Structures are given as C-alpha cells and as structure tokens.
Amino acid sequence: MERGICKRCERFFIKDHKNQDVCEKCYQKEREEYETVKDYLFQNKGASIMNVYLDTKVPIKTIERFIREEKITIVDTNT
Ligand SMILES: [Zn+2]
C-alpha cells in the first residue's frame, strides 16, 4: 500500500493506483473542473489563464497544474 499527499488539499491518502495524485474526495471535483476547463478552451480558443479563471471560476492554481500535466494547452500564458 502506498501513501501520497493530495495535490489539492495536501492531506495524506492511500493510493489506489500509482499515478493517483489527489485523494478520492478531490478526484471527483478535479474531474469536473477539468471537463469545465476543457469545454471552455474548446469554445474559446486562445483564451488566457485569467480568462479561463474568470469565466469558469476554476482556481488558477488548478488550471496551471492542468497545463503542467499537459492535460490542457493554453496559448497565451503571459496574463
Ligand atoms: Zn484531497
């Protein structure tokens, strides 16, 4: 059994699988936010992180993490 620290709430949790980086509680929320951001970017190509944040209310920290993990692509990262 492997333990990890949740990237969202920074609590310890037991990993179900190796690549799991958020706890079960946050996982659902994270999926919802990912879908929201992905849909937003699909409809608003070229949007900046700030645009995404203002329109979706998904925390900038989370958006930046999605970018780092290459789940989404933001063209304009200067804002
Ligand atoms: Zn968590």
Description:
This protein is 47% helix and 10% strand. With 79 residues, the protein is mainly alpha-helical. The protein is elongated, with a radius of gyration of 14 Å. The N and C termini lie far apart (41 Å). The mean pLDDT is 91. It binds zinc ion.
Can you give the helix content as a percent range?
Answer: 40-55%
Overall structural class, as computed from helix and strand content, comes to: mainly alpha
Poorly predicted residue ranges: none
Query: Radius of gyration, rounded?
Result: 14 Å
Task: Choose one word for the global shape.
Answer: elongated
- Percent in strands: 5-15%
Number of helices: 3
Terminus-to-terminus distance = 41 Å
Bound molecules: zinc ion
Q: Give the overall average pLDDT.
A: 91
Q: What is the count of structural domains?
A: 1
Brief synopsis:
The protein is mainly alpha-helical.
Produce the secondary structure layout.
Blueprint lengths: L1 E4 L6 E4 L8 H20 L5 H8 L3 H9 L11
Antiparallel strand pairs: 1-2
This protein binds zinc ion (ZN).
Zinc ion binds next to helix 1.
Q: What labels describe this entry?
A:
79 residues, binds zinc ion, 2 strands, mainly alpha, 3 helices, 47% helix, two-stranded antiparallel ribbon
